[in-house]
Amino acid sequence: MIGAGADGWWRDRPGAARRLIAAISAWIDESGVQRASPESVRPPERIVVVLEGAARSGYPAGPVANGPGGKAVTGDFAGSSLRADPVSARGLWTGSAERPALEIVHAPGHGDDAIVAAAHDAGPGTLVITSDRALAGRVRMIGASTRGARWLRDTIGI
């Protein structure tokens, strides 16, 4: 997903991870305060972002903590133990349900394997965002559906 846009991500993988997480968090908040159009895609109950390699130093594993105004807390969190409790993770969410959970997973090895494991744990009906055909095939075998990276970038406005 991070590599889907030509925004210099290859020069700053940790920064690209932070920007992606901030964009997803902002999209959740915009959807929750119903500023989005009726045709907009509503966030799911849970979003998992898998980071691999150098991108792992861009954000700590675990729930995304929200700062003032519900914005994702960004910065250099290498080695941090930053976590959020369910109450503080709601941010500005005013929808009928609780604010969707946004969680970061650090892949210990190959990111695709961690994505498949997360999709397996989530169960059938999970949506996986990938433009990788091989990964898409693997997650479809366990009951997940897929969308390409461009779809997510368009959906969250990056």
Report on this structure.
By secondary structure, the chain is of the alpha/beta class. Helix content is 30%, strand content 13%. It has helices spanning 13-32, 111-122, 133-140, 149-156, and strands at residues 46-51, 62-63, 101-106, 127-129, 145-147. The strands form 2 sheets. A 3-stranded mixed β-sheet has the order 1-3-2, with helices on both faces. It has a two-stranded parallel sheet with strand order 4-5. The longest helix is centred in the N-terminal third of the chain and has 20 residues, at 13-32. It is globular, with a radius of gyration of 15 Å.
Write a brief structural summary:
The chain is α/β, with parallel strands linked by helices.
